[in-house]
Write a structure and sequence with these properties.
- The complex is a heterotetramer.
- Chain A is mostly helical.
- Chain A has a domain of 260 residues: ABC transporter involved in vitamin B12 uptake, BtuC (Orthogonal Bundle).
- Chain A is 78% helix and 2% strand.
- Chain A has 16 helices and 2 strands.
- In chain A, β1 and β2 form a beta hairpin.
- Chain A is globular.
- Chain B is of the alpha/beta class.
- Chain B has 2 domains: 155 residues, Rossmann fold (3-Layer(aba) Sandwich), CATH 3.40.50; 73 residues, no CATH class.
- Chain B is 36% helix and 25% strand.
- In chain B, β9 and β10 form a beta hairpin.
- In chain B, α3 packs across α5, α3 packs parallel to α6 and α5 packs across α6.
- Chain C has 15 helices and 2 strands.
- Chain C has a two-stranded antiparallel ribbon with strand order 1-2.
- Chain D folds into 2 domains: 188 residues, Rossmann fold (3-Layer(aba) Sandwich), CATH 3.40.50.2300; 150 residues, 3-Layer(aba) Sandwich (Rossmann fold).
- Chain D has 12 helices and 14 strands.
- In chain D, α2 crosses α11, α3 runs parallel beside α4 and α5 crosses α6.
- The chains are: A mainly alpha, B alpha/beta, C mainly alpha, D alpha/beta.
- Chains in contact: A-B, A-C, A-D, B-C, C-D.
- Chains C and D meet through α1, α3, α4, α7 and α9 of C and α1, β2, α3, α4 and α5 of D.
């Protein structure tokens, strides 16, 4: 019984190849059998796959940086969806407000904490030379308090979301526009003086910012889309808070990834149940977003919103790719993923960078959650289910590879759809988990292995 | 092709022929043919990354062979499974001490003495022979007083000793020690040296890796010098150490 | 083997010599955990009357069997399995299908064949069936470790639930199976709640004995070694996969026995009792009570059962939120334990 | 610490559990009635409505002076929608609270779980919601004012056939209630000569039905039949079926045209037909119950179930007046067999020997979005379901 590793690997490959061929042949046969249904299945698969891809992207980013399964990820998906529900509940079925002062205060506190920490990390040491410690504390405290109270107000009065957010959005737009203008002027008129530069960017920036703010304040219809941003940011803030307040301490002592996994399982359990207590455990719809009318393409129907979701998934992928490959932040993230200790020695503030990774990951999860919520519905348990699908997608695509995450997400969506062509639809979940076990057994590095 | 073992009538306990192992594109061990004399202390030296630990991992079955043959007592093996190594008369220690951390010192030794088959293992609850042997080993490595504490609570030197003791508990002919002297205080160092000498005096074969040339000079009967996965030179310790290219290759690093 | 718990030992000592008590109590978390849970159980029984206490006792016994069996895998072998509910379900469904005597043909719902076996004939079949399933699953799962193992065990739980729900010709799907027989030995029937409680406790005792027998043997020592360092254990001549598979199968069979008891106790089962969440709760019981300690699992199960009932009496908590609130508490407890005491309350092993 | 000590501690614990008995069932002034409803989980819509309606009825009775001066006290337990939780809740009610009369449960599964215990203990289990046909056979002490799915199924099958439907696709939630509805409906439909060309099921926790619906629509059925347990999934299926371009008729039962379902489906629900027991618009009492309920809880959904739960309490009150003892389950049972009642759900109905009532079902059709009001519940009645 001489079986070398090479032999086993080859056997695995042969099996994987034959399974893939069989699956492809099956799909081709099915497509010729009923092209209509195939197109419809493909549309369904793409819509679902886009959500899986988004989940897998964020999941892969987090996993390939910290190398443990963070189950909060699932809770973040549910929180993204329930954030929208919380803010726009007056437009959904049932109508009655679920707005709860305790919940608003809790999240305001979390956001304030995260802001305080971010301010401390970003400015405290750098500014310490120039200002006294006391004045820094006062300034930081004020800013933190203001952010917390502002968040609390936003969460507590969803009907005035557009009014409350208008100044913030306006200010952000002003800063961005000012920065762009100054860069453009610097490029085009390299001789322009400092004063001109400043004046031009301030004027253009403030004009544009004011314009944005005013437009927003006068557009109550934008509340839904603003609530998307708010709930994504809040989910991200909770992710950062969890990392900074919990995982950091735990990772120092953890002997194995299992400790982190169990702890985040606890987080997931608690958040899921708390969601069920606050919002009841039954499924709920989200308010109608744009594009809920179906379009007919090649005799099959797809909603505009699904196409939007696919677009978001692809945009998220490109954005993440840009971040990781082209920016210095991305390089540090990859460095931490390769070896955290070395990165620390080189002088990277790993805590901050990992916090940013958690933030981005949670935002991706929240986005996936709310998009799928708009497409179908939300329920407290959705987090666990979505997270498992995101896991499977990233395993299928190849753990730790962004391309793999996207491919895996869409592939899983498609497989789930085409898998139930002859099987009854209730076996859909089983299909995805059988795929998972097959992949882990025969193809553990996924479709597109990392590096 | 006859092996050296066959030619020399079992003078060698362990022999490798063209053994290879590569990780991706890196050839960690590249067509290595060595022979380890029976009943002697063999030392493997070489710069970092020259494939010394990989060699031990290959010999103990921790890594599958990518090519070549290992000859153990005249038996040619292309595949070594880790759980078969005690049957081949081989055991080892690890560079990064690998004890069973969260069980007691006592149990760490007991594990290697007890039944390997499933059902007898279920029915066995520590025979007196095993207990005596454990006590003997623990006393010989000076850990008898620590027998109740968890392995993870020991100091580094104690862990190193315990690991050697664990290997000794397995009554085999060939011991592969991966850097047994690294990071030890002088007192501990002497103790480990004593253990190695004692094992040789009992007629066992020892292969160890070390970077400490004093110890290599002091202990080894046979010396293997490796570089980049290849054999640089092999032979009697004193002869090899007299060769200038060895000094260059090894001490030059 | 270090299966024993200082907690209970010191409790015993304290009972014999009250003077020792104060010294022991200081900073001894294990003792406190034991005291609190047991006092709670006794107080609860006094407060609520025997009838309900018996019901809870049976629930406790079933959960405790499950927890002890899972601890063999999680605590002693280091495989964090979230899929154990699957084996529980296999045991329950086998007993249900084989012993059910309902006249399904006369009902207007799905009909399945009935066998009407006695409980003690069906239970071994269920146990063996779960064992066989465990062998098949274990052969596939043996290559997975750590977090990947968790992931696939999630998969196993989901697959099992779907099989129970969707194999309608066998399990009647969502309709569930009625009239599952109560255990009988000769003419002694365990029909009453008290008799059943005693039977369940006997089962628990047997399971505890078997577990103790395993972990105190050389086999158990090898398991802990595997948990600590699988590859190193292999180098010392153990065929690790066989050991892992064996304990996995034994544990699965125990879970199946618990399932059989459960089916017979409720006399009606449907797939809702075997959802993924239950499995997650089970894992948290094991971690809560303590890894690699049999008594810890028992205590964990007791605390878990009492937690829900205890919370019913919180004045500010509406009844319908009790289940969810218990989940919140368990979740928070898990986080705190991982932070401060990764071995669980009475544990002997940190994850 | 040895195994002996473990065993000893176990034994002590067990003894403590056994030894302590506590009888606090000294009957006080009020009648104690147990209520088991699914307040959480898949059945929570029904459970909540039902327990609220019961509470309302009890408050009315108590406000009017109770039963011969004695008040009614409801002891509510959450039985979820599962047999296991129902058994725990049942034991709690009977052992701890010492009740002999239990109103509930909401879910058939929970009912079937608790029924054998109730039957053995001689406790009356009286449900307003559980519709599984098997409950008819569950025993002597088991009653319900919900109508068996068997009746509903026959009506549905007849209606489908009468509307000219010959091929049918079904989508069913994998719960006992929904499966029961589908099974009885399809049985009658096939008996009449119809053919089911495609069938799909879904577990309760999914919200995306498109893949199943795609398959169903591709089978080109004359009509789609939805059997849902949750109003929410019923409404979502209607919506998604229309989104996928299905324009044939859709049939369901009361869940599919519940208030939540209609809100979820929106305009897509227009024209959906359901076979259901509905409150008679001419029944003054029914209308008053709805008005009071809306005034009290600010919403109305599932009017018939609401009325049924409401009637349960009044029937219970009447029987308690006759027996005068909330521990006399046998007397209460006999009273139920004898009683003839006129209440919110109908005039002069009574329980047959299986503890069932039979009232007629009607066919309703969902109105366009603009015409739906609180009063008409969003649908109009097309009259009695055809008998042939």
């Amino acid at each position: 019984m001489l079986r070398s590793a090479a032999y086993r690997e080859r056997r695995g490959r042969i099996l994987a190849a034959s399974l893939t061929t069989a699956a492809a042949a099956y799909v081709v046969w099915k497509i010729t059998e009923s092209p209509d249904q195939a197109v419809q299945f493909a549309f369904n698969g793409l819509s679902v796959g886009a959500v899986y891809a988004l989940l897998a992207l964020g999941f892969t980013l987090v996993y390939s940086t910290v190398w443990f399964f963070d189950l909060y990820y699932g809770a973040a998906a549910a929180m993204g969806a329930y954030g929208v529900f919380y803010l726009r509940t007056s437009e959904t079925v049932g109508g009655s407000h679920v707005n709860n002062p305790y919940v608003s205060a809790l999240f305001a506190l979390v956001v304030a904490g995260v802001v305080a920490w971010a301010l401390y990390e970003a400015f405290f040491i750098r500014m310490q030379g120039r200002f006294t410690r006391k004045s820094l504390y006062i300034a930081g405290g004020t800013l933190t308090g203001a952010t917390g109270i502002y968040t609390g107000f936003i969460l507590a009065s969803p009907d005035y979301l557009h009014l409350l957010l208008a100044p913030a959005v306006g200010a952000t737009a002003a800063v961005v526009a000012g920065w762009v203008v100054s860069r453009v002027i610097q490029r085009l008129f390299s001789k322009a003086g400092r004063t001109t530069l400043l004046a031009a960017s301030v004027i253009v920036g403030s004009l544009l910012g004011a314009c944005c703010g005013l437009l927003l304040a006068g557009a109550p219809g934008s509340r839904l889309y603003l609530s998307w941003a708010v709930s994504c940011l809040v989910a991200g803030a909770v992710g950062v808070a969890l990392y900074r307040g919990l995982y950091v301490y735990m990772r120092k002592r953890a002997r194995s990834p299992l400790i982190m996994l169990v702890a985040s399982l606890g987080v997931l359990l608690a958040i899921t149940a708390a969601t069920a207590i606050v919002f009841e455990s039954a499924p709920r719809p989200l308010p109608r977003a744009f594009g809920s009318e179906p379009w007919t393409i090649w005799g099959s129907n797809i909603k505009g919103f699904n196409i939007f979701t696919i677009g978001v998934a692809i945009a998220g992928f490109l954005g993440l790719l840009f971040l990781l490959k082209r920016t210095s932040l991305g390089r540090t993230i990859r460095a931490i993923g390769d070896d955290e200790e070395v990165a620390k020695v080189v002088g990277i503030n790993t805590t901050v960078v990992i916090a940013i990774v958690f933030f981005i990951g949670a935002v991706f999860a929240a986005a996936a959650g709310l998009l799928s919520g708009h497409d179908t519905a939300i329920q407290p348990r959705m987090g666990l289910l979505l997270m498992l699908k995101g896991w499977i997608a990233s395993v299928v695509g190849g753990m730790g590879n962004l391309y793999g995450a996207v491919v895996g997400g869409f592939a899983l969506g498609m497989v789930e759809q085409f898998g139930i062509w002859d099987l009854a639809g209730e076996w859909k979940d089983v299909i995805s988990f059988v795929i998972l076990i097959l992949f882990l057994s025969f193809w553990p590095r996924g479709l597109l292995p990392r590096g | 092709m006859s092996t050296r073992t066959e030619r020399d009538g079992g003078r060698f306990a362990l022999e490798t022929i063209e053994v290879a192992k590569h990780f991706g594109g890196v050839h960690a061990v590249d067509g290595l043919s060595i022979a380890i004399p029976r009943g002697k202390i063999t030392c493997v030296v070489g710069p970092n990354g020259s494939g010394k630990s990989t060699l031990i991992n290959l010999l103990s079955g921790m890594l599958p062979l990518d090519g070549g043959v290992v000859v153990v007592d005249g038996v040619r093996l292309r595949v070594i499974k880790p759980h078969e190594t005690p049957g081949l008369g081989i055991t080892r220690t690890f560079q990064d001490v690998r004890l069973f951390d969260q069980i007691s010192v006592w149990d760490n030794i007991m594990v290697v003495l007890t039944e390997r088959r499933l059902l007898p293992a279920l029915l066995e609850r520590g025979k007196s022979g095993q207990r005596e042997r454990t006590e003997e080993i623990l006393r010989s490595v000076g850990m008898w007083e620590k027998r109740r504490s968890l392995a993870m609570d020991l100091s580094y030197g104690q862990r190193k000793l315990l690991e050697i003791g664990r290997a000794m508990a397995l009554n085999v002919n060939t011991y592969l020690f991966d850097e047994p002297f690294a990071g030890l205080f002088p007192q501990m160092l002497e103790r480990v040296k004593g253990i190695v000498r004692q094992l040789r005096n009992e007629g066992r074969t020892i292969l160890f890796i070390s970077h400490n040339m004093d110890i290599v000079r002091e202990l080894s009967d046979h010396l293997i010098v490796m570089d980049s996965g290849k054999l640089l030179t092999e032979g009697d310790a004193e002869e090899v150490l007299a060769q200038p290219e060895v000094i260059e290759a090894y001490l030059g690093v | 083997m270090s299966t024993d718990s200082g907690g209970v030992g010191s409790l015993m000592r304290a009972a014999r010599e009250p003077g020792v008590f104060m010294r022991l109590a200081r900073g001894n978390l294990e003792l406190w955990a034991n005291l609190v849970v047991i006092t709670w159980a006794v107080a609860f029984a006094i407060w609520q009357g025997s009838g309900f206490a018996i019901t809870l006792g049976t629930v406790f016994a079933i959960w405790a069997i499950l927890a002890v069996s899972l601890n063999l895998v999680v605590g002693f072998t280091g495989l964090l399995s979230v899929g154990h509910i699957g084996f529980f379900g296999i045991g329950a469904y086998t007993v249900a299908i084989l012993t059910s005597n309902a006249q399904y043909e006369q009902l207007r719902t799905e009909a399945i064949p009935t066998f009407g076996w006695p409980f003690f004939a069906a239970l071994p079949v269920g146990i063996v069936l779960a064992g066989l399933t465990a062998i098949a699953v274990g052969v596939v799962f043996n290559r997975f470790r750590d977090d990947i193992f968790v992931l696939v065990s999630f998969g196993f739980a989901v697959i099992c639930f779907n099989v129970f729900l969707n194999s309608r010709a066998l399990t009647r799907g969502a309709f569930g199976i009625h009239e599952i027989a109560k255990p009988e030995i000769g003419s002694v029937a365990f029909g009453s709640e008290v008799a059943f409680l005693i039977l369940a406790l006997v089962f628990l005792a047997v399971v505890v004995l078997i577990s103790w027998f395993i972990v105190s043997s050389s086999f158990g020592r090898v398991l802990t070694a595997i948990r600590e360092d699988e590859r190193a254990t292999e180098v010392f001549g153990y065929q690790v996969t066989h050991f892992k598979l064996t304990v996995w199968v034994i544990s699965a069979m125990m879970a199946a026995a618990a399932g059989g008891l459960f089916a017979s106790w409720t006399t009606f089962i449907d797939p809702n009792s075997f959802i993924l969440l239950e499995s997650i709760l089970l894992v948290s019981i094991v971690i809560l009570g303590g890894l690699a300690t049999i008594w810890g699992s028992i205590l964990g199960a007791m605390a878990f059962v009492l937690l829900e009932e205890g919370m019913r009496f919180l004045p500010f908590l509406p009844d319908e939120y009790v289940g969810q609130a218990r989940q919140v508490i368990l979740g928070v407890l898990l986080v705190l334990l991982m932070l401060f005491r990764p071995q669980g309350l009475l544990g002997r092993y940190r994850l | 610490m040895s195994i002996r000590q473990i065993a000893l501690v176990c034994l002590l614990g067990a003894l403590a559990l056994l030894a302590v008995a506590c009888g606090d069932d000294a009957s006080d002034e009020s009648f104690k009635i147990g209520v088991m409803e699914s307040l959480t989980g898949p059945g929570e819509t029904y459970g909540t409505v039902s327990s609220q309606a019961k509470q309302m009825a009890v408050d009315e009775i108590n406000a009017a002076g109770g039963i011969d001066g004695r008040m009614i006290e409801l002891i509510v337990q959450d039985s979820k929608c599962s047999a296991q939780d129902a058994i725990t809740a049942y034991n709690k009610l009977t052992d701890v609270d010492g009740v002999k009369i239990i109103l509930g449960t909401s879910c058939s599964g929970a009912m079937l779980g608790a029924a054998p215990l109730a039957e053995a203990d001689g406790v009356v289990l009286f449900s307003g919601l559980a519709t599984n046909p098997d409950i008819a056979e569950a025993g002597d002490y088991i009653f319900r004012t919900a109508m068996s799915d068997a009746l509903l199924g026959i009506d549905t099958g007849n209606e489908l056939w009468a509307d000219g439907i010959r091929t049918l696709a079904t989508i069913t939630e994998a719960t006992d209630y929904a499966e029961g509805v589908r099974r009885t409906s399809v049985a009658q439909f096939e008996k009449l000569g119809g053919e089911v060309v495609a069938e799909e099921r879904y577990p309760s926790d999914i919200t995306d039905f498109r893949s199943q619906l795609t398959k169903l629509i591709n089978a080109n059925p004359d009509a789609l039949h939805i059997a849902a347990q949750q109003e929410f999934s019923g409404g979502t299926i209607v919506k998604q079926a229309r989104e996928l371009g299905f324009d044939g008729p859709i049939y369901g039962e009361i869940v599919v045209v519940g208030t939540t379902a209609l809100e979820v489906a929106g305009e897509a629900a227009t024209g959906v037909k359901a076979i259901a027991a509905v409150l008679d618009p001419d029944n003054q009492m029914a209308q008053e119950v709805l008005r009071n309920f809306r005034a009290r809880y600010d919403y109305v959904t599932l009017p018939w179930y609401l009325g049924s739960a409401y009637d349960d309490v009044y029937i219970t009150a009447e029987c308690l007046r006759q027996t005068g003892d909330d521990q006399d389950a046998d007397g209460f049972r006999d009273c139920l067999y004898d009683i003839t009642w006129s209440g919110a759900i109908g005039e002069n109905y009574s329980f047959d020997e299986k503890g069932e009532i039979s009232l007629s079902n009607v066919v309703v059709e969902v109105l366009p979005l603009a015409e739906r009001t609180e009063e008409n519940q969003g649908y109009k009645s097309l009259g009695q379901a055809p008998t042939k």
